[in-house]
Amino acid sequence: MFFAKALRYLRGREPPKSSSKSLDDLPNELLDWICGYCDKPGIKALRLACRTTSHVATAYLFPEVVMLMNRDSLEACHGVAAHPIFSKTARNLWIQADRPRKTTLEEWNLELKEITELDLITVASDRIDQELVVGSREHTAAMDAVFREARNQFHIEKSPLSKEQRQCYHAHAVRLATDAQQMMRDQSLFACLREVLTKCDQIDSVDLTTCHHLRKATTAHNKSFAQGLLRPFGDLNEQESGVDAMTQLMLAASSVGFKPKKINLGNLSHLILINKEDFSEQLQELFTNVEHLVWEFSVPVYDDAFTLDRDAYEDIAPDLRETKALVSLMEVTTKLQHLRLELPDHPDADIYVTLQDIVGGTTWRHLTHLDIANFEAKPDDLTDLLIRHRDTLAHVKLGTVCLQTGTWPECFETFAGKLPKIEQFEVRGRFSDDSIDESFLWFGWPDEKHNNARGEEIRKFIINGGEECPAIHYQHDEDESTSEHPSEGNDEDGNVDLGDDEDDDDAEHEDIYGLDEDDQGHGPIYQTPNGPWPWIG
Fold it and tell me: At the top level of its lineage, which domain of life is listed (predicted)?
């Protein structure tokens, strides 16, 4: 009862009453819980309430240090490290390793045009969401009107730049791109990381990301990048995405003995394991105390169309097989509880890293969550990995796996009912095996939140066990139905039916931001939250 009254009081829902209790008397655990329900203005108000709430609320006001690849950001991070309060409240370091590339004025103009078009799509999508009632997305005329109005208003607010303004912005963009490279060579980034990791001694987790992987970057809102009208997306060289920043991080961490409990790596190249052999000891030190590890590996691409660099892609599997570098790194993570690895994958190629070259024979005594995608394995290797963690595994997720021998029903039968702690078993993507022709099992797209109908049957079989795996329908195409008799609550593709997907034909327009054309050739199709939108120009 007291907790409820305290919460209502802090939210301003009832006037204060005389009581022997004050905010200073509340335990930090309760204040921490209350802060979790407050927005940023509420947090600021709590900081002014009294000494105790100020201490707890401050931690919520500044929970992480965000570092971008420009000198203004480094200067700001130095300021955080020197701050007597914020240096003690930050618990996470987020390194956004996206760097701007040097461009000619013509190239810069083209990038600015793309940014402007994306902003227009965002504005129009928001207007459509706000002004059209739910279920009206099929009313093209209404959407067209809202879009045109949003476009006109957008162009009024975004007046064209003069030639002199463009030249000035471009000159600043070139300086920013030069600094992004220079700060690696002159150790500016290393020095900043070292100071942050030394003085912000509560930090125990690190995120290093590019290209909006894992988290949406804040580069679009950064004042320094805005001075050059830049929105960096990706690293200078996508074949070595994030490698330079990761190298500076592990060297700085080693110099101060920083060993985080949580590491999230978004779009980091496997070449950090291959090309930095001289620093392998520092890299392994960084992972020594990790309990939670997420690593989405980058796919080597080039040019603005993100064309697959086939040679670089085909080198990934041999690199990891010959060096065993990833296996060696996994072996030092003895405290691991949560592991998620997303190996490189591309629709234009199907060469995968083997499970043995990812985890080898590593055993983690505390592993409860296992999530691995885009690999190939022998049935015995996959079964052995799961069985040797049967005493701890509670959640398993497998995505796009190629079975080197045998069939999936036979493989599932080898570990079904043999994982006593298992609570959730998920499957996504293509599961291919030695079955006839080019058929495979389809368990839904990787980003879907739930198993499809076929996946649900497999989940129940793995958890409950049984003598024989349920019959599974093989197919030759992702769009083919995964079941002749879809389960209730699932659509014809065996996926969870959300009820508002009235016209599945719209799925053919899945290109994001104008890579496709409509049926009448009216120009690019843009995907909005309410469906595909033709560019109106």
Answer: Eukaryota
